[in-house]
Amino acid sequence: MLILALLVQASARLSLDLTKPGIEVSPMLYGQMTEEINYSYDGGLYGELVRNRAFLDDPSIPVHWTAAGDASSLSLEHSGPNTTRPMALRVRGGAANDGYWGIPVRPSNSYQLTLWAKADAPGAIAASIESADGSKVYARASVKGVAEKWGKLSAILKVNGDAQPVNDAHLVLRTGSSSSVWLSQVSLFAPTFKGRANGMRPDLMKLLTEMKPRFLRFPGGNYLEGNTLADRFPWKETLGPIEERPGHRSPWGYRSTDGMGLMEFLLWCEDMGAKPLLAVYAGYALNGTYIKPGPDLQPVVEDALDEIEYVIGGADTKWGAQRSKDGHPKPFPLDCVEVGNEDGFDKSGSYEGRFVQFYDAIKAKYPHLKVISTTGGKDWLGQKFPMTNRTPDLWDEHYYSEVWDMMSMANRYDDYDRKGPKVFVGEWASHDKIAPWAAGAQAGPTPNMRCAIGDAAFMTGLERNSDVVAMACYAPLLVNVNPGGRQWSLNLIGYDSLKAFGSPSYYVQKMFAENLGDRTVPFALESTPNQTQGDKKLPALFASVTRDSKSGIVYIKVVNALSTAQDVALDIHGAHVQPTGTLTVVSGNLKAMNSIAEPTAIAPVTTKLHGLKASFRLTLAPFSVSAVTLRSTK
């Protein structure tokens, strides 16, 4: 790993000028981006615990299902209850499902089991949650009413309060050996966030909500496009009961159940207090195929208009009425629509024509919506993509850069054209040594402290330039840390079936969102030490200062990229400083990471500050990100 070199230790000076208001900080600056990668939804945030619940993951064998008992037998048959559930598992004796790297068991949890079943003869199914070897049974229930015709059945399995938490249990369904039972759509949910049916995992939603995101970009990234035109995110097929959702192929090597559908995304936003940022499919696939602008593309444009109508249309519209039928009469607060995803990869040059067709249609029907282009800005993948026929409201720029390069981009937007579209930094992350798409499952699964330093340095530049950078979100957001569970090496939040943790970069993101005013504060930072890489130099310290114009609270964020503590003299001009404040610090060894075993090895530490005045000194810990809050009065 590259070690950031310390030349000499020296004091630094940070001078704040509170006589000037500074620029307005974008109220939507920090948000989240999500897509189905690393088992982010199935096996992650989405609360379903049964893997291959509809027996559609493999056409020939019931993967993740095994016979339960020596005399048991399983076979996969084309005899399901309907066209979206064409497969059925024929069981004689019993069947067990291993979940997404295990079924989690928590004391006092109640699990909602639903399944479709039919049998040679009427009867019941004995359901249980058991240890992998069957030696321990954590919960039992009887599923009654199995008949000779398909029917939807349910039961509650309750875990005792004295049970020990485990992450590798199985769901077992025992049918008896006297007759055959056919199963379809077997589903198991533990308690969900806010108790929502078909809802989200509570511990992950808590971590996400605590980031205070102002928006959620979805369905996000390559998941929107798919590997082929047929694999795009099929939003209309993700509505309604889960047994009516056919699911589709994810571009990351596994099948998506589409239990996380359009309504679930919108409720996710609502439950976090974030606005939806909807990305609509724009006629391009990852294999390079595309739909020509003009008549061929028009059905895709109409589909996007239908999707927008589902989100914000009144109950008197077709798709607004469908949303109301799906349980949400009130429209969602949509402000921005992004047309496609990373269309700079489309070497055909068709994006401008496709974008114009979408732009005109969206603006004609919804003139208040901001329309985002996935190409443009200062550059994209080292290329320029000028939009000559239509000017988007925002450009979407993506940066996955090595830590040194990310720190060097802290001043990227200082000289950006203020007369052009605003910038949406829709995906970005610092990586250490090897790019996350190249490192694969051998690295990560979450960033280390060095990456967090790079992230924080870049974010100071976003805040200082938030008159042009309107929104930004890190990516990817989620990762299942189990072997085989991840395709990208650096992700903000990690988890297994039972536990979850935030990375050092997660805590930096959370710190920046929590300590943000509505106006920047002009400042001057003088620092003698530099960090060096060969003949290249970068500053040792990076800073951002904002102020809440109503409360007078000043938020000072400083990144120390050096291996030694830095003594900083702070001078505050133009206001009286109250004597107390707080200091929050994230720091540690550059290689340090959080994990399931050590979820807070790197985590914020907050202390109270006393004796503050117009001039005071602050010592920055080595390799640290610090946030000072103080109250000022004119």
Task: Summarize the helices and strands and which ones pair or pack.
Layout: E1 12-17, E2 32-33, H1 41-45, E3 65-67, E4 73-77, E5 88-97, E6 103-105, E7 110-119, E8 123-130, E9 137-146, E10 151-158, E11 166-189, H2 202-209, E12 215-218, H3 221-225, E13 248-249, E14 255-256, H4 262-272, E15 275-280, H5 298-312, H6 318-325, E16 336-339, H7 351-365, E17 370-373, E18 394-402, H8 403-408, E19 422-431, H9 436-439, H10 449-464, E20 469-472, E21 478-480, E22 493-495, E23 500-502, H11 504-514, E24 519-520, E25 523-527, E26 530-533, E27 536-539, E28 541-547, E29 553-560, E30 566-573, E31 576-587, E32 605-609, E33 615-620, E34 624-633
Parallel strand pairs: 1-30, 2-12, 12-15, 15-16, 16-17, 17-18, 18-19, 19-20, 21-22
Antiparallel strand pairs: 1-25, 3-5, 4-5, 5-11, 6-11, 7-10, 7-11, 8-9, 8-11, 13-14, 22-23, 24-28, 26-27, 28-29, 29-34, 30-33, 31-32, 31-34
